[in-house]
Amino acid sequence: MGEGGPSSAEGRAWPGNFDAPDTVERVWTDFVAALPDPGQRTALRQALAFARARHGTQFRRGSPTPYWVHLVRVAMELQGWGEASPALLQAALLHDTVEDTRTTIGEIRVGFGAEVADFVDWLTAPSAQDELPAYYERLRTSAPHEVQVLKIADRVDNLRSIQALGMRTGERYRHWAGTYLRRTVWQVLPLAAAAPSVVRVALVTAMADLAPLVDDDGFTDP
Could you confirm whether 115 is annotated as catalytic? Predict the structure, then answer.
């Protein structure tokens, strides 16, 4: 990736630049094109095409940003952390397809293989709120390292997105942002204990950056 080009750190800066679909697409296209393995290039292109088709017209909350932008940013976050195995990057692109679309794990398994499907299955949270504590405890105690890091990357991007949303909209989403930040404390922060330092720093920084934009009691409520 060239200095100062669309794939540079400046092009991926938060908040703002890396929220633009055109910028995200250029960064991703350059990244995939530079991969030496043609099979990996094809697999990643197929995974993103599948995800974009399944997420369809979904957008990020309170934003005109197409949902697929989040998926690419999560994959690029993993790449920046040095967590860029082919299966993990495919899973990053597909991680919300089962949870947020009509896609099944069986379809992921047939289309992308058992390892990718297993990762996506781990990342698919239960819809019932009372099942979430047990789900996140399983992630902490039993999930593979790759799954834990992917979950953290997903949460980091969400926190940054909410930060950008709060900066654009002022008071409108402060309560929701506080609730999300509060949940991050018990849902995802425990996963960071065993993660590489670059991952821990990214999560804690994203939480700290969002904290001033939420309700005063949003960070401390149980």
Answer: no
